[in-house]
Amino acid sequence: MSGPVPVVRTLQPLREMVARWHREGSAVGLVPTMGALHRGHLELVREARKRAARVVVSIFVNPTQFAPNEDFDRYPRDEAGDLAKLASVGCDAVWSPERSVMYPDGFATRIVPAGAAEGLESDFRPHFFGGVATVCCKLFTQVGPDVAVFGEKDFQQLAVVKQMVRDLNLPLEIVGAETVREADGLAMSSRNAYLSPGERAIAPAMHRVITEVADKVRGGADIAATERAASAALTEAGFGKIDYVAVRDAISLQVPAPTSRASLRVLAAAWLGKTRLIDNVPV
Amino acid sequence: MSGPVPVVRTLQPLREMVARWHREGSAVGLVPTMGALHRGHLELVREARKRAARVVVSIFVNPTQFAPNEDFDRYPRDEAGDLAKLASVGCDAVWSPERSVMYPDGFATRIVPAGAAEGLESDFRPHFFGGVATVCCKLFTQVGPDVAVFGEKDFQQLAVVKQMVRDLNLPLEIVGAETVREADGLAMSSRNAYLSPGERAIAPAMHRVITEVADKVRGGADIAATERAASAALTEAGFGKIDYVAVRDAISLQVPAPTSRASLRVLAAAWLGKTRLIDNVPV
Predict the structure, then answer these.
(1) What is the chain A residue with the closest CA to B102?
(2) Residue A195 has pLDDT above 70, yes or no
(3) Which of A28, A109, B12, B22 has its CA 20 to 30 A from that of A39?
(4) Does A108 sit within 8 Å of B116, measured CB to CB?
């Protein structure tokens, strides 16, 4: 059994700690999170532990990736609960900076990703990937890890972060870890806590529908027609607004050419009441 | 006497070289340049040598900081001459990547600085600081230096780079080095090579005029009136279009509050024929 996980809140002790680990010859892994940890996050920590002797989990609810009308204020926060969960899986430190440490007065530099960031989430959350790319770059330069692990649940985010790391020559490896699901297929998400019992009963339809899309496309079905049918199936199942159901190139996230043999991914985003759910599966 | 300076053109040997120096306990300095080196650049190398046992000079004419109508194609290039000059001052390696190494196919991430990047140069070269910030971030993450030295000649650029390093928590120190001038006061610049003999005779008026502005402002003169008179004096001296003569806060580059006691800087940009000159002095 391990003791309580140390929480670091300012940059200098963080850097001294990681420099000490590197001097000792340990690789360092980072798992960036916004807290409200669930089993999916704990799998990311286990994945990081396979690749690095020391693992840092960052907990920072990043205001710049929320639009003013989004759920920044009500996003679930539970540091004590998060620390207890992390102690159970073996995490060497939590990096939990205050907002004023992450974005001091006068902060004025943004990272703007294109490429994999275009379309899908960006059509509905135009501010999102700029906020994600900027805070991830900062988390990487603050912690200085050798590897960072992200969930495939946010598949386009994973692609954007990989592209940023490649484009900006950041000296670390980005690893994607498979989505962890409830027994009925619902992808684990901190936002599932928003769902009413009725919405919770509808939610697994998203995974069922996109899995059917993957099967059909693998079987040679027309992509556009399959996307349209899937959107109708989500509405039929009880979802509200359907932001997208889309089959995309798994690396570039762009619309695949009709003759493309590249690996594909099915991605979806739709609303249940005031809660927006996203999910994806490989073709 | 030192031997020829090794030129590194791909990322892996660059990183191995710098990692070896760091393992040996040497601090590493970087001097980012676009080549066409003059005595001003060599002073930056000397400044870097004071702070680091190993010095890398990067030579890369960065296309993304030139607008289509600007002088990217005719910008002076002379690698052999540059290497000879660098050998004379003691430089451990030149980092000179091809464009395809710096910006491979699919490159899609930009850094967009605000704050110190607003106004002045941005009013006339709106693409400029985005290109500078992105390539400097990449040079820093590619080389991994402990310190990078920039000339005060490009004063707003120095402020933007400092701000980016602070905002993105890049783990290096940015040092500004004093502008090196010809005997008649003209700031050394690779672009001085564009000047005709007639234009070259007019050019030193810029330093003379902004030095007078600094003297007057120090003596309590009205800032706006002094800026206007200086602009007229440059026209009188033979300059063409005057982009700006401006007194600004030396850190934020913003218009100083009337009661500000902050340190100030006089900055100017103006045209001589097809050549755009910039210069600045402290108040």
Answers:
(1) A167
(2) yes
(3) A28
(4) yes
